[in-house]
Structure formats: structure tokens, C-alpha cells
Amino acid sequence: MELGMSRGGSLASLPEPHLASKRSRRGAGDGSTRVIDDPWDWNAWQALLGEVTSRPFAQGVADYERFLDIYPTYAKGWKLYAEHAARTSSESGREAVQDYTKAQAHQLDDSVKPVTIYERALVYCKTNVELWKSFLSYLKKYGSREAIMKAFDQAVSNCGLEPSSHGIWNDYISFISKGHGGRGPEDQVTRDLLRKVYQRAVKSPIQNLETFWREYEEFENKGSNPDFAKGILAELAPLNKSARAEFRSRKYRRDGLVLNSVAFPPRGKPKEEEQSKLWKKYILGEASNPHELEASELSKRVIYAHELSLVCLYRYPDAWIEASMYFKEIEKLEEAEDVLHRGINAVPTSPLLHFALVNLLELQSRKEEARTCFENLIQKSPSPLVYIEYMRFCRRAEGVAAARKVFARARKDQHSCTYQVFVAAARLEYHVNKLPKIARNIYELGMKLFPTSVGFASSYIDFLWNLGEESAIKFLIERVLAELPKSVDSRRIWDKRMEFEFTFGDAKSIEAVEKRRAAALADGKSSGDEVLGLIARTTVMDLIPVTHQEMNAIKSRSTVPQSSGRADTNERGNTGGSGKDTSKAPLVIRPESCLHASD
């Protein structure tokens, strides 16, 4: 029996969870109705699971599957499911489906047999000690010696660093000692197996290490070669001592962590955010190698810490990316990729996870697979950012024509083609392809589609500024100011108009534009406007004609709030401002962009 610990065994690769009929939902109590309305209602799920465990197994399969599709890292749920299935099994371990009605029996396939449920569970919860104990207990009743031995080895490999895993280590040793399969405890093969397991156990930072060490000493001293026993014990004693110290310090490093918390997506709740920070702190603590472990042992600790965190942070894209980055750091690219695939299974619509996978594939020159990753994301969750990153990737990997095809495709997507896509395409043409004429054509097309987008107009103005076309800049700014509805916050455009006049105009023209701006944005002049305008006019980059204290005093005397400088849109041609009254905003002082022509 081989447990699937990689992306291939995910719930997403299984058939769709069985859905209970409306009749069964109505009869299932309040919990079932509530979880239909809100799949993240944890209290409702708890109530429903309480009902499910008391039903015949076949009647509960649908709800178990629905629950675990949403909370796949909740080990207790898998344990309830598998043990419920096991209670309906015959002595041979096969499902006793003969008592079910045909309507119930058709729902039961191989995926809901006890051993398969355990295997599916351990894909998600492979560090959970209690789940492994339950699985091993089941196998001892129905499994072969070979299957049990393999499961024990996988258990200690996956959760053997957990302090509470001492019970599994002890059961493993006991199972071998009893000589299952016809071998007695003095058989050489048995002794070799015991030595191997003992030596792994006494070096692991788990509970009861003193007891394990005493038992191991006794085991070696009973051998026929006292010199060998003395030498091997002397070699392992320092490692055992280090493991004891590691066990004690790990308890301190885990202080505050909720190891088996339910894996919700980020919800902005303070306690959940605090747990996320504590997990990061814990992983960094393990990676700092406080016990001066060898590289191979250190990587085991850090990987295990990441795996523990992913049980609780299953729906957090950054947790998966950080785990993948660690694998990349230790030059295990296959594992780094596998973690990202698992993360995408957990958060299938996350652009960030897909971008991380693309980056990893691109580094390995696997361009076709990277393209497939983008295609999958567009099918699941198209967005302006996805199209932009896809364009950039195609330009890097395949050239100009491929990037333009993506842009053409994006323009047909009415929901995802916002002004940012046009800006990104124009910048590619200008900066990368060195084709300013095509870039300008894209901007002109965008002006027709996004006539009220301050963000797009601002980008177009910056583009013309880079070209140094003075008359075109002024014409575009005036055109935008004339066409923008009064409901749109036009401060950013007026700031650019003032910026233009500071650079190319004279004192009279500057004053004239300042009066126009004041009339457009204010009902009348406010105290401080003139001073702030003069400061903006004479500021170059980070060089300001007042001290910081003087600047604070001037701002405090101003009777109007400072402009945020934000007026943007994510919708096709519509602004996305704050909706606040900004009609009395003074000139924005932005030293970093006041004068393009001055150094």
C-alpha cells in the first residue's frame, strides 16, 4: 500500500462530492440548511457532523464529503469518516453494502472504503498523530504484515518529529519485537529492524526519550558483541542528549500556536492574523538552526514546520509560496513545484500561486507548461492582472507576436479588460519592443474605451512626457479636463497640468493655471492654498524650500485637507474614487514628480 502524499491524491482529483437530495437536506436538521447557506459556518458543520455520525454510513457519505471538500485538513473529520466506514465493515475489511438499498449503495465506491478514506486523509493531514494511530489500528485488524510495516514507516517519516508521536514509535518497536510473521525477537532480521527504528527514535525530539534510550541501551547490551554495543551507544549518546534539548526548546518556540486550528481562508480576524504571524516566527526559529544540526537534519525540521503550518494555513497562498521557496533554497525543485501544485489545489483561483509556479517553470525553461498554467488560471479566474502577466510572459518566452495575441484576446473579455491592460500593453510596446508609435495607438484606443478613467489618462500623459512632446502633452491634458464629468475627481489631472506649467510656462501662465485649478476644485480660495502652490512650484525631487517643521506648520494652518492624489478605476471607463467631497483640495505636493526637466 502506497500512500499518496503529493498533488495527485487531492480531493480535486476525485469525483465531485456526493450531494444530498433536497429531501435529505430538509430532514438532516438545522445544521444542513445552514451550511448550504454558508459553507464556512463552522458551528453549523459541527452540529451536522454530530448528526451524521449517528446515521447509517451510506446516509452520511454525502455530508462527510461536502465537509471535507471545504475543510480537507481537519484530521478529526477524516478520522470520524474513516472510523464510521470501518464500523460497517465485515471481518475481511470489505464494505458490507448488501444491507443498503440500491439508492444508497450506488453512492459507495472505492473512494469511501476505510483504507481509501485513510489514504485520502493522510494526503492532507500527514503530520497528524491521532489520524495515523487510527489508521494503524485499522490496519492491525485487516492489513497484512507488509502493509502494517509500510504504514508504520510512513507514519514515523511524516509525523515522527512531533513530540506526541512517541506512542507511534513505541507501537512500531513493539510490533517488530513481537516477531510477527514467524520471526522471534532474537532473529537477526528482527534485531536489525529494531536497531534501525530505535536509532531513529532516540535521535527524534519526542516525549519519553529517556525511556527510549534506556530500552535501546538494554537492547544493544543484550547482543553478542559488547564492543560493538559500547561503540554504537557512545556514538548515539550525544545525539540523544541533543534531541532532548531540542524537545524542550521546541515547546517554547511553539508557545501560542494552535496546532490543529481549522483552516479558514484569510478573514482579517485578529486571532487568525496573530496565528499566521506565530507560524512564520516558528518556521524562522527552526530555520535558524538553534541546535546546530547537520544540513540534512535541519532541512527535515524546517520542512516539517512548513507542513505543520500548511494544515492550519491551508487557504493562505503565501504559506504555500514560502514553503516552496524553502525547497527551492535547498535545491529541491521537484518538491518546490509539488508544493505549489498543492497550494493551487487549496486556493485554485489565487493568481499569486499560479505566478509563483510560472516563475519556477520558466527558470527551468519549461515554457509550454508555464503557458498551460496561465491558460488554466484564465479558465478558472480571469482578471486584468492575469492577462497582463500572461502578456509579459509571452513577450519574454515567445516574442512580440505571442504577447500581442494575448492582448487581443484580453480585449474580447469584457469583464477583465480594464484600462490597466491597455497601459501594460502600451508599455511593453514602448519600453521592450521600442515601438512608440504602436504604444501611442494603444493609448488612443484606450482613450475611446476609458474616457473617464483618471488613471488611464494619467498614464497616457506620462507616456507623452517621456516622448518629450510638449504640445501633445498640453493638448491631451486640456482634452481630458474638458471631457471629464464633474462627478469624477480630476485632481491628478490638474496636478499634471500644474506640473506642465511649472516646467514649460512662466510666472503669468503658472498663476493663470493656478486660478483655473482653484475654480475647478474649490468654491473659493482657502487659507494656505497660495503657499502650498508656491512650495510645489519650487520643489525639485526631494529638495523642498522649507524645513520639515515649517512644512508641518503650514499644513496645520491650511483650512483644507491635503489631497490623497488617488482617483482610479478598475471598471471599464468608470472611476473608483472614494466618493468623498474633494472639491476644496489644494495643489498636491509631490516632490518626486514635480519637475521632469530639472536635476
UniProtKB/TrEMBL annotation:
Keyword terms: Nucleus, Repeat
GO biological process terms held by the UniProt record: mRNA 3'-end processing
Signal peptide span: none
Biased composition (Polar residues): 555-567
InterPro entries xref list: HAT, Rna14-like, Suf, TPR-like_helical_dom_sf
GO-annotated molecular function: mRNA binding
Suppressor of forked domain ranges (all copies): 33-550
Compartments, record wording: Nucleus
Superkingdom of the source species: Eukaryota
One matching Pfam family: Suf
Presence of keyword Repeat: yes
An annotated GO cellular component: nucleus
Region (Disordered): 1-32, 552-599
PANTHER family, alphabetized: CLEAVAGE STIMULATION FACTOR SUBUNIT 3 (PTHR19980:SF0), RNA CLEAVAGE STIMULATION FACTOR (PTHR19980)
Protein name: Suppressor of forked domain-containing protein
Organism: Rhodosorus marinus
Lineage of the organism: Eukaryota, Rhodophyta, Stylonematophyceae, Stylonematales, Stylonemataceae
